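JOB MANIFEST
job_type = single_chain_structure
chain_count = 1
residues = 144
[input]
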Amino acid sequence: MKAKVFQIIIDTNVLLSALRSQFGASFRLLSLIEDMRFQINLSVALVLEYEDVLKRPALNPNLTNQQIDDILDFLCQNANLREIFYLWRPTLRDPKDDFVLELAVESDCDYIVTFNTKDFAEAEKFGIKAVKPKEFLRIIGEIK
């Protein structure tokens, strides 16, 4: 029997964490992007948010804009790119996160991987669970 391929969204805070340190669960998750156990899903809005946050010098001083562009290109090449045709707003306690939930619903996601799990508690109404990177790595059997 074929194993389930989990559909996920990687929140911006996880991507930022992965690019700031090579020693955590976020970096491990990013290093597994081409793994067959899961697929990431992206929208134009999420890629633009990634770019905006990652290119703020105060947040990520160790990468050039070209390196960030290369990382974003890699993510786009390895993701399911989704168009959002509807809005589920307002749903979450932080309205700036609603577009992530909309992407997760459109993508029929299993998980939103984020450090802000409380911000995405309402996602469970749509059958989507918010988990931290380490928990997701456990789910896919990457760590015990």
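[summary]
The mean pLDDT is 91.
The longest helix spans residues 65-77.
exit_status = 0
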